């Protein structure tokens, strides 16, 4: 297992649109285990492969209290189930230290492959629905800061760029 390096906003690689996975094999499962280890190590509830510079449609999520319910979604396809929106204070491992309120559909249907390459479907609501939509955005090269005002987004970008200069 390995902890992978997480790209940070405004890294242009986060804007890459990920390609569908063609084959679920042992090598892919090893990478998924590394994604889970990276997410748990960083105290995250979700991580998309795009965030570790792998541009394939893979997500891991764990919204459980005990942090022992890993969910794996390969080639996820989501459909909103309601016009009702839910607001959550969202953060992102690629935008460390910043949180903003984002509105998204409160219930979604998801169809995906599991880590054995078998198709499954589920309906999600609450934090899981929000997290799933946030992570699928990553696979399409989008970030939660794209859902807030340009003023706020630029402020966050400048603060992160400053931190990155100080860390360099
Ligand atoms: C997406 O984000 C999410 O800034 C997952 O210093 C988050 O796991 C969807 C994190 C909230 C819905 C609601 C962020 C950890 C984790 C930070 C994360 C930080 C440490 C973010
Ligand atoms: Co994120």
Task: Let me know the average pLDDT.
Answer: 98
Strand count, sense and closure of the main sheet? 5 strands, antiparallel
Count of helices? 3
Structural class: alpha+beta
Q: Give the overall shape.
A: globular
The tally of strands reads: 7
Q: Which spans of ≥5 residues are poorly predicted at pLDDT below 50?
A: none
Bound molecules: 2-phenylethyl (2E)-3-(3,4-dihydroxyphenyl)prop-2-enoate, cobalt (II) ion
Through-space gap between termini: 27 Å
Radius of gyration: 16 Å
Across the major sheet, the strand order is: 1-2-3-6-7
Residue fraction in strands: 25-35%
Description:
The chain is an alpha+beta fold and 168 residues long. Helices cover 29% and strands 26% of the residues. The protein contains 3 helices and 7 strands, in the order H-E-E-E-E-E-E-E-H-H. The protein has helices at 26-41, 126-139, 150-167; strands at 46-48, 58-61, 71-80, 85-90, 100-105, 107-113, 119-125. Strands 1-2-3-6-7 form a 5-stranded antiparallel sheet. A two-stranded antiparallel ribbon has the order 4-5. The chain starts with 25 loop residues before the first helix and ends with a helix. The mean pLDDT is 98. 2-phenylethyl (2E)-3-(3,4-dihydroxyphenyl)prop-2-enoate (QAP) binds at residues 42-46, 88, 90-93, 96-97, 130-131, 134.
Structural descriptors:
single chain, binds 2-phenylethyl (2E)-3-(3,4-dihydroxyphenyl)prop-2-enoate, binds cobalt (II) ion, 168 residues
Q: What does this entry show, briefly?
A:
The chain has 168 residues and is α+β, with helices and mostly antiparallel strands. Helices cover 29% and strands 26% of the residues.
